[in-house]
Write a structure and sequence with these properties.
Blueprint: E1 3-7, E2 13-16, E3 20-24, E4 42-50, E5 55-61, E6 65-72, E7 74-79, E8 84-88, E9 91-96, E10 101-107, E11 114-121, E12 131-136, E13 146-151, E14 159-160, E15 166-172, E16 177-181, E17 187-195, E18 198-200, E19 203-205, E20 210-214, E21 218-223, E22 227-235
């Protein structure tokens, strides 16, 4: 029987550090909710706004797949592998932390904020060699259809990670609907609404709502308004 969990936008954890305004779908830093630690292999979904010319100082990660999706502005990244890059709206960045990396992230601009999603996924193997990648996505490929932006396969569309996970973005006009077919048995799907209103198998979702669904093989997503959303299919057993 299909199982679901609903996380309304206004029930998320919230931390306002002045330079950083962050909403946490799952337990993170000083926000701890024992009923919201992870959704299968999806461990962190942070909705971050970074003030002008501010950012995260150098800090370590290990044994985690870290995905950043900029929603607005330019984010400068530096890491211990020697990468210095800027990611902006339309890009996706991935790091396999593996045996350990250190990195910093700063708002490149002195006159505007940066908004981005920071997502952590548990890997399916530990202590891999750290790596970094980023690509620019074609935003037309998600207009009224589902655009794959992440998978387990190096030769597939989007970036890849060490986990049997698939991410898709959709940007639907009002009234458009599509079926999402699960890629792997035993996986769940976590849907996060970026903008607008959608309906997932009868469940209404609004901006920044999250909805997990599992023990099924497909879902129908319908746009009740012009809407943008992120789909994250991940293993439920980790």
């Amino acid at each position: 029987m299909t199982k679901t969990i609903l996380h309304k936008a206004n029930t998320r954890g919230h931390a306002d550090h002045g330079w950083l305004n962050s909403y946490h779908t799952f337990s993170f830093a000083n926000y701890h909710n024992p009923e919201r630690v992870h959704f299968g292999a999806l461990r962190v979904l942070n909705d971050d706004t970074v003030s002008k010319a501010m950012g995260f100082g150098t800090h370590p990660h290990e044994n985690m797949e870290i995905i950043s999706i900029p929603l607005e502005g330019d984010l400068e990244h530096k890491d211990s592998m020697g990468n210095t890059t800027v990611i902006k709206q339309g890009d996706i960045q991935v790091m396999s932390a593996g045996t350990g990396i250190r990195h910093s992230e700063y708002n490149k601009n002195k006159d505007s904020v940066v908004k981005f999603l920071q997502i952590w996924v548990f890997p399916d193997k530990k202590n891999v060699t750290p790596r970094y990648d980023q690509i620019t996505l074609n935003e037309n490929d998600r207009h009224n259809k589902l655009q794959q932006i992440l998978s387990p396969n190096q030769d597939d569309e989007g970036v890849w990670i060490h986990q049997n996970a698939w991410f898709h973005l959709g940007k639907f006009d009002k009234g458009v609907n599509a079926d999402y077919q699960f890629k792997q048995n035993g996986n769940g799907l976590y849907i996060f609404v970026l903008n607008g209103d959608i309906n997932v198998d009868g469940q209404e979702l609004n901006k920044r709502d999250g909805y997990g669904i599992w023990e099924t093989d497909k879902v129908n997503i319908k746009a009740d308004s012009d809407a943008e959303f992120l789909l994250m299919e991940v293993p439920m057993n980790i």
